[in-house]
């Protein structure tokens, strides 16, 4: 009997002790929540849309993009589906930082030549999600050299080059753009939009004019991936997919192998048409222009008698 009473006393003593610790535990949780709220509130992004969550949209394309994360206060990568979504989406990491992080100043690392390395040169090795075996090269920021790695065939990041020379040219030993020359050697060298015919008119300085290629931001809202040709990919599966043909303005069916390929790849014809507007064609000089059907001109035939 005495043993049973001691056992009950010990049980109730334990219960009382645990109940006494509950208020302290709840206070600790509330303090932690307050600290988290104050931490989130300490940084106000430059624009309201920077506080939106990443939205990949309803389409099924795979476009590498960036968004500002309010909880980590950093710009992070995500995969965009290709249509709709929200404004918290950027084509480059640098654009995201400049738009959403207050007081951000570009801290690009310069090589010995003085040329800047792109931001993606500092990304870590990423073989992607597929299981292919492709020899690629990446820039290792620790060794300051381009090194070989195995790429799976899809996704990954932009620190991924097909040849060693390409990696070295862009990330290991970036070079300045060519400086102007002092002699006229080709008739297609132009300055101020006019062909150079007299050296004295341009002070013996001519600049070769590169072809006018539309910048990426000029395509914003026009879906540039819709101009890419159908790409079946690298694997051996056979999936029915649809791609947009910019010449015909229609979505056509093709077989997708399951990995690799490009962003002009949709699971249904409806999503293809929804992502890529009809009536767009590729124009070498003006990028993308809308076309309209025109009625054939009326031709009047006149017959004359021959005497």
From TrEMBL:
<dbReference type="InterPro" id="IPR020901">
    <property type="entry name" value="Prtase_inh_Kunz-CS"/>
</dbReference>
<comment type="function">
    <text>Inhibits factor X (X(a)) directly and, in a Xa-dependent way, inhibits VIIa/tissue factor activity, presumably by forming a quaternary Xa/LACI/VIIa/TF complex. It possesses an antithrombotic action and also the ability to associate with lipoproteins in plasma.</text>
</comment>
<dbReference type="GO" id="GO:0007596">
    <property type="term" value="P:blood coagulation"/>
</dbReference>
<keyword id="KW-0094">Blood coagulation</keyword>
<keyword id="KW-0356">Hemostasis</keyword>
<keyword id="KW-0646">Protease inhibitor</keyword>
<keyword id="KW-0325">Glycoprotein</keyword>
<dbReference type="InterPro" id="IPR050098">
    <property type="entry name" value="TFPI/VKTCI-like"/>
</dbReference>
<keyword id="KW-0722">Serine protease inhibitor</keyword>
<dbReference type="InterPro" id="IPR036880">
    <property type="entry name" value="Kunitz_BPTI_sf"/>
</dbReference>
<keyword id="KW-0732">Signal</keyword>
<dbReference type="GO" id="GO:0030195">
    <property type="term" value="P:negative regulation of blood coagulation"/>
</dbReference>
<feature type="domain" description="BPTI/Kunitz inhibitor">
    <location>
        <begin position="226"/>
        <end position="276"/>
    </location>
</feature>
<dbReference type="GO" id="GO:0005901">
    <property type="term" value="C:caveola"/>
</dbReference>
<feature type="site" description="Reactive bond">
    <location>
        <begin position="60"/>
        <end position="61"/>
    </location>
</feature>
<dbReference type="GO" id="GO:0005615">
    <property type="term" value="C:extracellular space"/>
</dbReference>
<keyword id="KW-0677">Repeat</keyword>
<dbReference type="GO" id="GO:0009986">
    <property type="term" value="C:cell surface"/>
</dbReference>
<feature type="domain" description="BPTI/Kunitz inhibitor">
    <location>
        <begin position="121"/>
        <end position="171"/>
    </location>
</feature>
<dbReference type="Pfam" id="PF00014">
    <property type="entry name" value="Kunitz_BPTI"/>
</dbReference>
<dbReference type="InterPro" id="IPR002223">
    <property type="entry name" value="Kunitz_BPTI"/>
</dbReference>
<keyword id="KW-0964">Secreted</keyword>
<dbReference type="GO" id="GO:0004867">
    <property type="term" value="F:serine-type endopeptidase inhibitor activity"/>
</dbReference>
<dbReference type="InterPro" id="IPR008296">
    <property type="entry name" value="TFPI-like"/>
</dbReference>
<feature type="site" description="Reactive bond">
    <location>
        <begin position="236"/>
        <end position="237"/>
    </location>
</feature>
<protein>
    <recommendedName>
        <fullName>Tissue factor pathway inhibitor</fullName>
    </recommendedName>
</protein>
<feature type="site" description="Reactive bond">
    <location>
        <begin position="131"/>
        <end position="132"/>
    </location>
</feature>
<dbReference type="GO" id="GO:0071383">
    <property type="term" value="P:cellular response to steroid hormone stimulus"/>
</dbReference>
<feature type="domain" description="BPTI/Kunitz inhibitor">
    <location>
        <begin position="50"/>
        <end position="100"/>
    </location>
</feature>
<feature type="signal peptide">
    <location>
        <begin position="1"/>
        <end position="28"/>
    </location>
</feature>
<keyword id="KW-1015">Disulfide bond</keyword>
